[in-house]
Specification:
Chains A, B, C, D: Homotetramer. The structure is a homotetramer. By secondary structure, chain A is α/β, with parallel strands linked by helices. Helices cover 41% and strands 19% of the residues of chain A. The first copy, chain A, has helices at 17-30, 49-56, 70-83, 95-114, 129-140, 149-152, 158-167, 244-257, 282-298, 301-320, 326-338, 370-373, 385-402, and strands at residues 8-12, 33-40, 64-68, 118-120, 145-147, 182-185, 190-193, 223-230, 233-237, 240-241, 262-268, 274-280, 344-351, 354-361. In chain A, the strands form three sheets. In chain A, strands 3-2-1-4-5 form a five-stranded parallel β-sheet, sandwiched between helices. A five-stranded antiparallel β-sheet of chain A has the order 10-9-8-13-14. A four-stranded antiparallel β-sheet of chain A has the order 6-7-12-11, with no helix packed on it. In chain A, a hairpin with a 5-residue loop joins strand 11 (262-268) and strand 12 (274-280). In chain A, helix 3 (70-83) packs across helix 4 (95-114), helix 3 packs across helix 8 (244-257) and helix 8 (244-257) packs across helix 9. The longest helix of chain A has 20 residues, at 95-114. Chain A is elongated. Chains in contact: A-B, A-C, A-D, B-C, B-D, C-D.
């Protein structure tokens, strides 16, 4: 791609220092018109201030897109993923991963709406996010061009960046209280990277965490909540119907209050190296546990096991940026097929980092029946049936043994 | 099988009321010689008293086998399973399941040593344990006979059992402090079933738990421990080498003290129904988390992902009683192949139910390197490589899109 | 179940000797009303004669159900299965397995329509079919009773059966030309078991095969056909639209003529033993190859690979009788999601047992583009992209190597 | 990498025109010493003539490596892969894929032996082979440099190549009888790409095939062979012990004679596009079928099913070039664990493209027993056991149905 080939570019613009530098750099280097796109996906910062900043950088008002995507984010991305009980590498709830395809989608849609031929983002050249943005964009528009400044420019140190900003009149005053860590936030989680975290043998400082209290500082009183599920999605909290974004917001508040959802891991990036990250996912941590609990009484055994077998692949697809791929959609079709009976309520106790299931019930879809599991007689289970069940399941071993095959 | 076909039977004998009744019943119904086998697998009760009870029931001294299997249990069953990070249905650490094959193995071996043609156990007719015992036995000796009294006799109520015991001079006085729940205990866990647990919407009473304190009653001070791993197994704690059973014993003590490892779930039994169970697995809960942590810096990404994909099947095999099956051994071969580099130490903080990883290190096998994941330049990663990586990974979408395939 | 509990039973009735004996035996032993169900699923025998036989055995005319299920069989069972490219144990096209759930379904439906409380079938006690019938029936009606005479009666030898038939006036004259093998036939295949086949080291006699010619006797001239696919199903042959049953009938004729689709294997039964079977699946063998061919140009790579990974499980589910299970439906949902683009035509050459793909094309969904795979330059693929693609895919090895991990 | 960084490069040198041009180009562009490596892996051409060509191009005699790797190729690469029954995308036997890691291994080893810091190959920039060579090389030596001339130079048309050759005195006279197709050959297969094959709707000309006769021209008489297996590998043919390479050579001769092993497919390349290829794999086609046959009587059912479930991933790993990866080794460990009982003989009839199994036997490991699958009584199988087996396998459906869940 030649620089002059780009006529108009849609930039994922946070309003912060880095993407402001990118904005300017795109104007200078590509001599092209820039459209800014700023989304509220629950990162907890005002998005409206990005408008003024964009205008100051010479963006035409009609080229400034500021949108509240919180409901779409939770409804169409977070909830479908939680139906899968997705966890990456046994630990990570995919908070950053799941937000990227939505941004990619809106970038491509805004490009179409504004006649832009290109999109750009501020993800660095060693991370997963560049992959997620760009694979998402290509999947939605095969002709889209992509500019990834971090892989292209020579502003590859903090000093050069600040010098460039200053030269171009971009405000570099550090926001008060801004974290020194590399962070990403949305309605599902906050992530932290960098600094002391670069030594996996070094625990994070307690003041790193922005959202949740430490379990040690959480209330001494536990709190019990009730979540109602419909087709695998949480729809009401303590008896009150909530929209998807409202639900996650409220579960975040509750989880954060009780020290729930902190995570400190070394994970494997798609681009090949290991990376240390810390995460806060208070509401998501509650949702995962509660969803498994409602599934435990409503989901058929083999449906549940099949879900568990498919899950790692599903999680990798989300982590690696393949949300819009045919294979993710195939897995989603299988998962969603299983969720039509996942209806009922779960009661959860929150206490100092613990998410404790204390009850699950389903008026309509309960497959648990006390009578069938006690040692007493019941109407559907003849204990003598176990003889044949065991005998035929063991038959291949019996035949092998009788044919002289030993087992050690 | 005709009753007269049985000449000599090895009974898994705990010394308790139920297996004492079985012992007597076998003598009466089958008119056969009975060999008792009592194992210490860490259930926390003396096994030696079973000798006297057996003798009182007429068992010949040379037919009484009392063994301490704790080291074998942890070394050859628990540890291999934890190399797999096995969890059944997203929650259960398989504490009961993993002990059964060992019992089956010794039953068959003792049968061979004593010239017995039959084995017997006290597992009920609706549970998983009967399957685990019997499939294990058949896998190890295809000609072995099995008597499962609970599926056969008509002592199918508590009253009939007690009457039978009384009539036969078996002590039915309730042991002081004995739990009213149906329990199973070994060095990995204690399980609880029955009573109020039969309503999955009813939380267990706090006095049910026998091993761990409640997180609410755990110390206000956290405790930090360091576990050293060798080839995927924990070998030293706080710098002190421990045998497998010593290691698990000590981790249990620590976990129990800090309210770690309580679990309350509805699970799917192999014989077809759902069942409510509560579990305490203090040491196992620490081990699972710590093992994932040491793997996170020492295991190759795709090896880790393959393990995650195979794990649900592995866990089901253990749960269903297929420890001695060729397919479990195939999976174990794959898992063990991956563990040769899983060496290093993990530091863990224990606090009121929380298992918090605060450090992981490996002098010999660390694959984490800070330089490769920062946004700075490094020697092995050229950020421009990401262009091609993304482009070719997206190529199938680009081609599809250019051929007119839309993505929604 | 007590015998007097059965009021009315629906019997899968072929009109042959065995099921006529069963019919009589049910009347005698269970003293119940019998409803007969005879289906044409393409077994190649008239079904109408079963009416007279049933009447002769005292069945009321309104209790005789004779149905042509060929279209439903192919449309709702065979075609969905072929979308999955299902093969059991690398060889078997599941011809018998796929017909059983349809029979189970109609048995249960007819039971409902006639007020019967029970169903019965003529499958033997060591085979897979009993499982498929009964699991199917229970899945569709949990209260249905099942009588499996072969597991119950004492007519366990050919002599006793014939004696019973003679005593009860059932015609035992051997049908002229009837195969001495144990056979099952439907529109998808014919299976053979028994006699010399019981020695897996003994090849079948050539006169065993009923449907296809030997490749050695097939025409010396090959024949080229063109199959059109829509959403993964074949819909037209040589330009002529055909219904599902017409399609399979015609492909059977063509395959049989050219010696296609004979198979001779040892397979693993669900009930635990190995079993030798021979199969003729002429049309199915063509369909499998042709379906893979149309998928090869229309299906996304990872969708295709995911299908391949799910296939063995899908095939086992069908083989084991779990057609109506939630897990089969989940897999089907995933598979069907992938088939919407599987449209186009395949040209196939048939020659002495060989199915040779000689062309595949799709006007609407072709993902193949010559330009992208030649060594020439093209618009979507920059060969330099391969540098980064390879480098990042190899990065985990490079890092491991630099950290001292050797690879042998 | 700067060009002056390369001191000495090991080139995979066939002696043909393309790699001769590369040799010269490396000398000119990189000003470095070139080591040539020419291997006989059964491609059917003399390798010794490459020596003189290399010398003519100025290579020092001590820098010329010509090796016969046929035994290592079959023993350590082909046979392990065939233990897995590996097939890529349902059709392709991975003939090219499996040879590349061996070449990569020797390139790296020769680099070490000669003090070279770089390897080079003649694979083009859009294919899979570049990936296989380079991932293999990096996996074995993380510091190795790689030069892939086709991705780097501007000789990107046939004309430029020829001009370059002529200018540099490289013989461009077309070898008589040389195929116009792009071919790759080794002891396992020959592949063809290009020309008319670039239209997937166009069948290959019959004179393209170099190895096998057409089924139409194969002998009218079939031929029966007997293959003996040991631990999953073929070790004797018609009673005569053969080394791995001898075995494959002889099976190729037999298969080719009988028109066996031609394949014409569209496959998905790892680098993202679809590609048409034709393949001849006569011996491999026989081996796959025969291996499945010997497994059918010696392998446990669930071991076989697990192998089938793992196979697609294994095949993709081989196809994509991950032979030396931890995950391929894990899968191989699982597969090899299963093969210790795969011993016995298979008789195969070869006839005009057909590979027909006509017998399988194992004196030591046969799990088939006629008695267990007939409808007669036997000692290990009580037909009444099927009642319980079916009932408990259906229990989850029965409970679901009784709880009101319908199944459609």
């Amino acid at each position: 791609m030649q620089k002059q080939d780009v006529k108009k570019v849609v930039l994922a613009y946070s309003g912060g220092l880095d993407t402001s530098i990118i904005l300017k750099w795109l104007q200078d280097e590509y001599k092209c018109e820039v459209v800014t796109f700023t989304a509220d996906i629950g990162q907890g910062e005002e998005v409206e201030p990005a408008r003024k900043k964009a205008i100051n950088l010479g963006i035409k008002p009609e080229n400034i897109f500021i949108e509240d995507l919180r409901e779409e984010f939770v409804r169409d991305f977070v909830f479908p993923m939680f139906r899968a009980n997705a966890i990456y590498e046994g630990e990570y709830l995919l908070g950053t991963s799941i937000a990227r395809p939505l941004i990619a989608k809106r970038l491509v849609e805004i490009a179409k709406a504004t006649g832009a031929d290109c999109v750009s983002h501020g993800a660095t050249g060693k991370g997963n996010d560049q992959v997620r943005f760009e694979i998402g964009a290509y999947a939605l528009n095969p002709n889209i061009k992509v500019i990834a400044p971090w892989r292209e420019w020579d502003l590859n140190s903090r000093e050069k960046l600040l010098a460039y900003a200053e030269k171009n009149g971009i405000d570099i005053s550090k926001k008060k209280g801004k974290s020194p860590y590399s962070m990403d936030a949305n309605l599902l989680h906050i992530s932290y990277e960098g600094l002391v975290l670069e030594d996996p043998n070094h625990a994070p400082e307690d003041d790193m965490w922005r959202w949740s209290v430490s379990p040690k500082n959480a209330p001494d009183e536990s709190e019990i909540i009730e979540i109602e599920y419909k087709n695998g999605d949480p729809v009401a909290l303590n008896g009150k119907k909530l929209s998807p974004a409202e639900m996650l917001t409220e579960l975040n508040r509750l989880g954060a209050k009780h020290g729930i959802g902190r995570l400190d891991i070394v994970e494997n990036r798609y681009v090949g190296m290991k990376s240390r990250g810390c995460y806060e996912t208070p509401g998501g941590t509650i949702m995962l546990k509660a969803h498994r609990a409602i599934e435990s009484i409503t989901l058929d055994r083999e449906a549940a096991h099949l879900k568990d077998e498919l899950m790692p692949k599903y999680a990798s697809l989300v982590y690696n940026g393949y949300w819009f791929s045919p294979e993710r959609k195939m897995l989603q079709a299988a998962i969603d097929e299983s969720q039509k009976h996942v209806n009922g309520t779960v009661r959860v106790e929150l206490y100092k980092g613990n998410v404790i299931i204390i009850g699950r019930d389903s008026k309509t879809d309960n497959l648990f029946n006390e009578a069938y599991c006690t040692f007493e007689e019941d109407s559907v289970y003849d204990q003598k049936d176990a003889n044949g069940f065991i005998k035929l399941n063991a038959l291949r071993f019996i035949i092998a043994g009788k044919n002289g095959r030993t087992n050690n």
